[in-house]
Amino acid sequence: MHYPDWTTVLDIGDPVIDEQHKHLFAIANDLMTAIGRDQGKAILKDVFERLKAYTRYHFKEEETYMERIGYPDRDAHAAEHVLLMMRVKTLWRLIENGEIITPQGVSLFVNDWIVEHIMHKDALVGEYAKARR
Ligand SMILES: [Fe+2]
């Protein structure tokens, strides 16, 4: 089973944000591991809650960062975070309803929302920050 790994492609160039993204991946991997080992609902729910809480924390941090550097598309970016948060909650519903039962299922979902967002949206924030330096 190949879990989504951190790659330098996902590096946006800010050490704090990059570390948080890595941590997000680590928790997502924990969730896939828990599903792969067929651990009980309570454990799954626990790991999922960690993923949800950390995602929420990270988005807030990123929004503060965008504000600090004067990123012009901050509002649109923050709006996408709201949608992503909704998808995180959907992920739990799918797991709970038995629609996502394999690590691969979570992996697809995670790739879709974390990787896509980091590569296409967070990367722009990194480029903007770099250009300002
Ligand atoms: Fe973001």
Can you characterise this structure?
Helices cover 78% and strands 0% of the residues. With 133 residues, the chain is an all-alpha fold. The mean pLDDT is 90. The chain has one domain: Four Helix Bundle (Hemerythrin (Met), subunit A). It binds fe (ii) ion. Fe (ii) ion binds next to helix 3 and helix 4. Fe (ii) ion (FE2) binds next to helix 3 and helix 4.
What is the oligomer described by this structure?
single chain
Number of helices: 4
Q: Please outline the major beta sheet.
A: none
The gross shape turns out to be elongated
CATH class: Mainly Alpha
Strand proportion: under 5%
What number is the mean pLDDT? Answer: 90
User: Radius of gyration in whole Å, from Cα?
Assistant: 15 Å
